[in-house]
């Protein structure tokens, strides 16, 4: 028969014969299975009729059910009689013709007249009598008198209680005279007449801490007060009786339970479990269990808005029993409230409060104490005996069932943090925890009378101290006290603003001091059995998954239908949720070079480097979530080898990208996101070991290690429904090489090509060339040894326990294949072994330590350490909920040190954790835009909270996504070029020539827009070139982010950073500043968009973002889109003279030295200009059909042709100058992204490359380096000509080497094999070893040494002293004495007193006044050695032993004279270094071992400046000029001075 369910909530629903019929208030028509139909209707051949009768809609069935509804409020239901008699009460049975009074209690028929006719119904069983309500034993029959029924032993009184009657079933009602005792009165209470006390309270017995209250003559026992126990923060406990203590155990403990004789009180049990967050010395409440009325209620950390009841995960609110228990959300807190006054609240994070009525006085036990108003007897174990300490007390209340998956401890065992008195004093001040107790002008002062803040203050100091000043601890303490005040009705306002503790409100919500406890919610939340379901939420209504229900928003009710799990699923409950779950899973993997293993176990290799479909849904099967995973591979160090570099996972209308270019981050719809990431509770991305793990609600899991190994795990529901390189998952390996056209591929190459879905520049699906040949058997044998791949199959090796579970043979084979192609490079061995180790650990097999100092050693980032078995779900700063409990096996990897947590991709102290917001994690201090149009700028603050404010992009900016970052980015850019002689093109397009030979400001930020713009300066050093008539760029320096990066002419692959010589590529400032060699060019790039390119010969480009418009100055102009005002001088004045403009921007040198060629600039004869303008010379640049024709529309060649002609002409047709000039245009084109044609050949500018390299028009010099092979280094998409290493070779900073000769990457720097690096303070020295590992050891400078940079090398160097004769005639001695020289003539400034010493030298300066009105300055310098004399004049012309020499000059083995950007250097190793600058400043530098051995005007260098004021003959003076004059050089004539 049909089933009947009738309910009224503004509608009537009838389920019958498989139909669901719904009549809704004021809806004209009837919904049948969700579809609206007009009346009348006839369903199932008359089985159901629906029609209108008057105002009513009528549903009538063929078995007699009749339902009417007037579409307003009146409903009638007529149920057929046979539905009423189907089930009979106890002691009776069904009869078609039952005699109602055939067996009734004596006297019953006197009251009720029985029908003489039989009726269908229930009849008493033999031996039982009907008592008017039910069938009972004869002895249980009552009394029937005066028209009333009395139960056996009932006592009744007449109206004045003058007569008392008792029901005796055998004798009837027996009555006797009666009168009420003293102090009682005849009354009716609760429908019963009797003699009651005149004081109702005497009729009930109240407990010790209860009081009797009378309302409407009814007495009830009321608790006298409510006790409160809490645990918050670290945790700090406060018992019902007011005892305060700290206990950091991390197990599950009984915090409170009922004990002893309850005498009618409702029993309950509350347990709580703590967890560590970054430090074993600190623990917080993790979850709370409440057991009451046979319900088990669990509130779990971060599971906001939900609780688990009897194992089932439910949304709040939840109502249990008949009003016995309610669970609801108040603000950010879950509240469990019972009908007897117990209230348990937990904020899903760290704050637990239990409130209990005093009825339970002395009736409870646990960590909340015994609630007996005695603070001295709290520390008692379950047996009631006192214990000696809080730790022992905590241990004694361990809950019987502990979580086996989470090992726990009761106290901190090792590495426990400490707290000194100075820190305690600091945190007690009003700026920190002292704010709670501040009585003068404290924000919490008004609450002090109600609630003593001292305990909270003490706990706050404790937390701040042990958590190293973590701001979150302060905010927690202030919040806890504020909550207590709120409970007392005192609202503390503005404390969050004052102490920097913003609340972390999610998007579309904001903080209020006093928010309504009942926030607006969705109007159609449906209630079913006291449970609430969210709109659209589906759930199973039975235990066998046969009835699926949905909260239907269109109907405004829960609608259910028959359903079942598929054959590939089973009905199970996991984490409180009942669902159809897969019976099994299968995994497909690609690792190494890539070696593929399909879902069905088929193995093959495929080395294509394009984009391929790894796996995707290819079926129309209902119920399967569509998805697709694609992979892109790239070559690394060899064209014979390719590795997976990028994985794209498309599902739920989003695309997730995991790329080697963004280690430990992912891209969500092309936007860069830190881990963990929670997308819509459907997709979770987290870090496990070194691997990104993507888990989905659909049961699909994707992993990628950001290096080469990708896996996809599918549930059995996807069997025979997928396709791609991973096969079809039909449990048949033989058809796994199926191509999209349905045919079977012959090999991996054909299969791979068929699943190609996209191209990337330069990609191919097949290996071509001599390097593709397979390894020989003899080579394989070498790499099968235990010191290479053999460790995988070694029966006594570290993987021995795994061999029976995961066959090692294919992994061994793959390892040998990869290592052979990499010629034994240890990195490839380690990667291949790691793949097998990971396969073992992923199924829970224990492996043993396989890495050693000599075999695959592992170095972890700062503040972390290597572990063979790190937890599969490492603790992170993020407080995101996951799709379920962590069930991942452990894996090898790096884990944060004690006291540190994972913040995105780095380990930070717990106090430096960031913020979780809208499912994403941000580091502390991160600034991001939450809205698509950059209308709201948000900042992750100190206390883990995000605060947002309205924002808009500045002029020159547009809201867009750049390199994965959404924000206000420049809408364009400006470019300035300096090339050749140098010829300049400003940001605004103005062309000019300036031949100055000093250092000039090329581009500088002169207005940083109130700190909005990052300041930077680019300088350019020029020198004379060729015949001296022209100048070229000899150096470029970029000052940015506090660094000075100096690029020197003809020095590729190296730059000076703050005077230290470093290899390229180089990454500084966490990747915000990168320096790379691309082609022949060194390129500096910053995160804000500055790009500086120098080809180390001839050509410089400065590219800046549009945000700098109008804010610039220097030779490149002001970038204001007006070329007419580009000749602006430093003071803001304009000039038209190019020489005046140029020399005004000189750096640190007098302008008169640094002007251009003035009126003596070289001119080119017309005939020569024509000659050099031909296509076989400079004219190749503009030739209409030449190699650069595609570039002409992008970059006008005219300027480059005329510059080329000018330069080539000036140097008499020099071929190198011609080639450099043509190369300048080639660079400009390639920098703009234009693909030019080859322009070099054997007769025109032939390219020459070092050994093991060759010329390429588009050379991969960035990706083809050791550094890039070891660690991914983001290269630009630009393509430049240059020398590229041959296959199998990579560039190591000096030359092309085989892979196994590569060095190391350390702190963003590349170190060559054996190269040492010393840290900033010379505290440690690290050396690059052959294994690719950097080994570090402690370093300290010896006495007499100093930590600094000399000749580009940082280290401990011998202390030096310097004496300076400045350009304006001042002397500063070795020991710091200073003053004006005043005198003119030749003076001995420094000499070694011992003229017989091997290192003897003497420095003489000739001071003259060369211009009227000028100060005395050094016009010439003479340095004498035992065998040699060097003389230099102010023009830097140099004579050695009287002969003029060209520089640089190596005079002897120890003595050299060289020219630098700012002067000339004469150096004798271990003795003296004399520099003579363009400014005519002389500096004499000597080593510390010459201390006390010096003579001359510069003093004796004895570290005492007081005795420097002595003349040559030892007399004391107060005038420096007298000291200098006494050291007059006698071998120089003073005649005429």
Would you mind describing this structure in some detail?
- The chain has 1537 residues and is mainly beta.
- Helices cover 10% and strands 36% of the residues.
- It is built from 16 helices and 112 strands.
- The strands form 29 sheets. An 8-stranded antiparallel β-sheet has the order 25-24-23-36-35-34-33-32, with helices on one face.
- A hairpin with a 6-residue loop joins strand 67 (927-929) and strand 68.
- Helix 4 (454-466) packs antiparallel against helix 5 (471-487), helix 9 (809-821) packs antiparallel against helix 10 and helix 13 runs antiparallel to helix 14.
- It is elongated.
- The model is unreliable at 1-9, 517-528 and 880-884 (pLDDT under 50).
Brief write-up:
With 1537 residues, the chain is mainly β. 10% of the residues lie in helices and 36% in strands.
**Cα-atom radius of gyration:** 45 Å
Q: Give unreliable regions as ranges.
A: 1-9, 517-528, 880-884
Outline the biggest β-sheet.
Answer: 8 strands, antiparallel
3D shape: elongated
Task: Find the count of extended strands (DSSP E, 2+ residues).
Answer: 112
Separation, N- and C-terminal Cα atoms: 133 Å
Oligomer: single chain
Q: Please give the share of residues in helix.
A: under 10%
Structural class: mainly beta
Q: What portion of residues belong to β-strands?
A: 35-45%
Physical arrangement of strands within the biggest beta sheet:
25-24-23-36-35-34-33-32
The number of helical segments is 16
Overall average residue pLDDT: 84
């Amino acid at each position: 028969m049909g089933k009947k369910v009738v309910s009224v909530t503004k509608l009537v629903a009838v389920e019958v014969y498989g139909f669901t019929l719904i009549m809704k208030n004021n809806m004209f028509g009837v919904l049948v299975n969700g579809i609206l139909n007009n009346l009348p209707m006839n369903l199932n051949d008359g089985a159901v009729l629906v029609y209108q009768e008057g105002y009513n809609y009528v549903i009538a069935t063929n078995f007699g059910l009749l339902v009417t509804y007037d579409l307003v409020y009146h409903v009638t239901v007529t149920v057929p009689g046979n539905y009423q008699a189907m089930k009979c009460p106890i002691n009776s049975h069904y009869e078609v013709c039952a005699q109602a009074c055939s067996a009734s209690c004596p006297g019953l028929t006197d009251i009720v007249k029985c029908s003489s006719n039989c009726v269908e119904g229930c009849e008493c069983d033999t031996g039982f009598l009907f008592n008017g309500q039910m069938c009972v034993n004869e002895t249980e029959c009552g009394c029937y008198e005066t028209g009333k029924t009395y139960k056996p032993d009932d006592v009744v009184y007449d109206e004045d209680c003058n007569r008392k009657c008792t029901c005796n079933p055998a004798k009837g009602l027996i009555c006797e005279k009666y009168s009420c005792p003293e102090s009682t009165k005849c009354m009716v209470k609760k429908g019963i007449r009797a003699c009651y006390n005149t004081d109702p309270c005497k009729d009930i017995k109240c407990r010790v801490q209860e009081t009797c209250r009378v309302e409407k003559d009814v007495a009830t026992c009321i608790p006298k007060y409510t006790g409160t126990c809490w645990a918050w923060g670290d945790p700090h406990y406060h018992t019902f009786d007011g005892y305060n203590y700290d206990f950091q155990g991390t197990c599950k403990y009984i915090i409170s339970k009922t004990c002893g004789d309850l005498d009618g009180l409702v029993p309950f049990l509350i347990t709580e479990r703590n967890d560590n967050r970054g430090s074993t010395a600190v623990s917080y409440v993790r979850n709370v269990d409440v057991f009451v009325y046979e319900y088990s209620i669990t509130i779990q950390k971060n599971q906001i808005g939900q609780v688990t009841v009897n194992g089932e995960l439910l949304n709040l609110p939840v109502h249990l029993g008949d009003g016995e228990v309610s669970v609801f959300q108040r603000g950010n807190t879950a509240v469990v409230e019972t009908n007897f006054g117990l209230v348990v609240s937990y904020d899903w994070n760290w704050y637990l409060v239990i409130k209990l009525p005093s009825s339970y006085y002395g009736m409870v036990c646990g960590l909340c104490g015994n609630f007996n108003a005695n603070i001295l007897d709290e520390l008692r174990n379950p047996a009631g005996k006192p214990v000696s300490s809080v730790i022992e007390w905590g241990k004694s209340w361990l809950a019987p069932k502990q979580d086996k998956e989470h090992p726990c401890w009761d106290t901190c065992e090792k590495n426990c943090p400490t707290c000194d008195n100075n820190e305690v004093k600091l945190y007690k001040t009003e700026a920190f925890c002292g704010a709670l107790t501040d009585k003068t002008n404290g924000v919490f002062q008004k609450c002090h009378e109600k609630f003593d803040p001292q305990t909270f203050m003490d706990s706050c100091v404790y937390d701040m101290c042990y958590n190293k000043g973590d701001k979150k601890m302060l905010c927690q303490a202030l919040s806890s006290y504020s909550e207590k005040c709120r409970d007392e009705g005192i609202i503390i306002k503005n404390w969050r603003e004052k102490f920097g503790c913003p609340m972390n409100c999610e998007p579309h919500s904001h903080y209020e001091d006093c928010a309504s406890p009942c926030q607006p919610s969705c109007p159609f939340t449906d209630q079913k059995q006291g449970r609430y379901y969210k709109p659209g939420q589906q759930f199973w209504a039975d235990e066998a998954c046969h009835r699926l229900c949905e909260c239907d928003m269109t109907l405004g009710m829960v609608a259910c239908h028959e359903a079942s799990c598929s054959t590939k699923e089973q009905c199970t409950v996991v984490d409180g949720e009942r669902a159809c779950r897969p019976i099994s899973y299968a995994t497909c993997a690609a690792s190494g070079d890539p070696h593929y293993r399909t879902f069905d176990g088929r193995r093959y290799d495929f080395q294509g480097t394009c984009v391929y479909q790894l796996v995707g849904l290819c079926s129309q099967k209902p119920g399967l979530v569509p998805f697709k995973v694609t992979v892109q591979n790239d070559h690394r160090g060899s064209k014979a080898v390719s590795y997976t570099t990028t994985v794209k996972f498309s599902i739920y209308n989003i695309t997730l990208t995991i790329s080697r270019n963004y280690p430990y981050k992912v891209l969500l719809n092309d936007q860069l996101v830190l881990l963990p990431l929670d997308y819509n509770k459907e997709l979770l991305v987290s870090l496990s070991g070194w691997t990104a793990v993507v888990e989905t609600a659909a049961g699909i899991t994707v992993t990628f290690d950001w290096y080469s190994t990708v896996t996809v795990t599918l549930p059995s529901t996807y069997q025979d429904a997928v396709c791609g390189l991973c096969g079809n998952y039909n449990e048949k390996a033989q058809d796994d090489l199926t191509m999209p056209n349905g045919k079977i591929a012959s090999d991996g190459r054909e299969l791979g090509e068929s699943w190609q879905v996209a191209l990337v520049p330069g990609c191919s699906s097949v290996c071509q060339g001599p390097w593709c040949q397979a390894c020989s058997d003899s080579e394989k044998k070498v790499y099968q040894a235990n010191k290479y791949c053999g460790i995988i199959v070694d029966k006594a090796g570290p993987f021995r326990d795994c061999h029976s579970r995961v066959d090692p043979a294919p992994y061994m084979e793959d390892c040998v294949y990869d290592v052979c192609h990499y010629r034994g490079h240890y990195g490839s061995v380690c990667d291949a072994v790691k793949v097998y180790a990971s396969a073992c650990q992923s199924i829970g097999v224990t492996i043993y330590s396989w890495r050693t100092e000599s075999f695959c050693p592992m170095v972890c980032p700062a503040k972390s350490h290597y572990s063979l078995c790190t937890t599969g779900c490492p603790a992170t700063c993020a407080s995101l909920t996951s799709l379920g409990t962590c069930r991942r096996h452990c894996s090898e990897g790096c884990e944060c040190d004690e006291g540190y947590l994972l913040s995105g991709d780095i380990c930070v102290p717990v106090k430096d954790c960031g913020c979780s917001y809208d499912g994403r994690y941000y580091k502390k201090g991160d600034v991001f835009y939450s809205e698509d149009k950059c209308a709201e700028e948000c900042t992750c603050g100190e206390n883990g909270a995000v605060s947002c404010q309205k924002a808009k992009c500045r002029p020159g900016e547009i809201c867009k996504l750049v390199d994965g970052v959404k924000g206000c980015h420049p809408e364009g850019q400006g470019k300035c070029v300096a090339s050749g002689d140098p010829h300049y093109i400003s940001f605004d397009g103005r062309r000019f020539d300036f031949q100055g030979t000093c250092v000039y400001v090329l581009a500088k930020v002169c207005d940083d827009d109130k700190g909005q713009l990052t300041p930077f300066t680019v300088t350019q050093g020029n020198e004379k070139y060729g015949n001296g008539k022209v100048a070229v760029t000899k150096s470029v320096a970029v000052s940015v982010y506090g660094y000075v990066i100096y690029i020197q002419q003809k020095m590729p692959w190296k730059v000076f950073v703050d005077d230290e010589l470093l290899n390229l590529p180089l990454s500084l400032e966490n990747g915000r500043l990168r320096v790379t060699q691309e082609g022949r060019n060194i390129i500096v790039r910053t995160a804000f968009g500055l790009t500086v390119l120098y080809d180390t010969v001839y050509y410089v480009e400065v590219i800046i973002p549009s945000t700098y418009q109008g804010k610039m100055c220097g030779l490149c102009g002001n970038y204001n889109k007006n070329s007419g005002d580009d000749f602006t001088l430093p003071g803001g004045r304009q000039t038209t003279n190019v020489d005046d403009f140029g020399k005004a921007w000189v750096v640190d040198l007098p302008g008169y030295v640094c002007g251009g060629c003035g009126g003596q600039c070289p001119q080119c004869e017309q005939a020569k200009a024509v000659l050099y303008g031909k296509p076989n010379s400079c004219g190749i640049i503009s030739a209409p059909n030449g190699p650069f024709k595609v570039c002409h529309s992008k970059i006008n060649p005219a300027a480059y042709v005329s510059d080329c002609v000018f330069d080539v002409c000036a140097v008499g047709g020099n071929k190198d100058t011609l080639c450099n000039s043509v190369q300048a245009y080639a660079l400009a084109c390639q920098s703009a992204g234009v693909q030019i044609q080859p322009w070099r050949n054997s007769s025109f500018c032939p390219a020459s490359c070092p050994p093991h390299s060759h010329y390429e028009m588009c050379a991969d010099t960035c990706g083809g380096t050791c550094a890039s092979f070891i660690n991914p280094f983001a290269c630009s998409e630009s393509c430049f000509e240059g020398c590229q290493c041959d296959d199998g070779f990579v560039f190591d900073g000096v030359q092309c080497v085989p892979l196994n000769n590569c060095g190391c990457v350390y702190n963003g720097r590349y170190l060559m094999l054996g190269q040492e690096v010393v840290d900033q303070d010379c505290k440690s020295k690290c050396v690059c070893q052959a294994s690719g590992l950097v080994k570090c050891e402690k370093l300290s400078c010896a006495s007499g040494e100093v930590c600094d940079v000399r000749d580009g090398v940082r280290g401990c160097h011998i202390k030096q002293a310097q004496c300076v004769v400045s350009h304006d005639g001042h002397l500063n001695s070795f020991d710091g004495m200073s003053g004006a020289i005043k005198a003119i003539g030749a003076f001995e400034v420094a000499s070694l007193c011992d003229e017989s010493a091997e290192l003897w030298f003497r420095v003489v300066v000739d001071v003259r006044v060369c211009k009227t009105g000028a100060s005395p300055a050094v016009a010439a310098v003479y340095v004498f050695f035992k065998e040699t004399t060097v003389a230099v004049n102010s023009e830097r012309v140099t004579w050695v032993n009287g002969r003029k020499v060209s520089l640089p000059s190596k005079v002897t083995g120890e003595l050299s004279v060289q020219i630098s950007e700012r002067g000339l250097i004469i150096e004798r190793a271990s003795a003296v270094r004399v520099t003579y600058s363009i400014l005519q400043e002389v500096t004499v530098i000597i080593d510390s071992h010459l201390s006390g051995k010096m003579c001359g005007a510069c003093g004796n260098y004895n570290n005492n400046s007081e005795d420097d004021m002595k003349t040559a003959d030892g007399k004391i003076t107060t005038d420096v000029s007298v000291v200098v004059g006494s050291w007059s050089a006698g071998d120089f004539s003073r005649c005429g001075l």
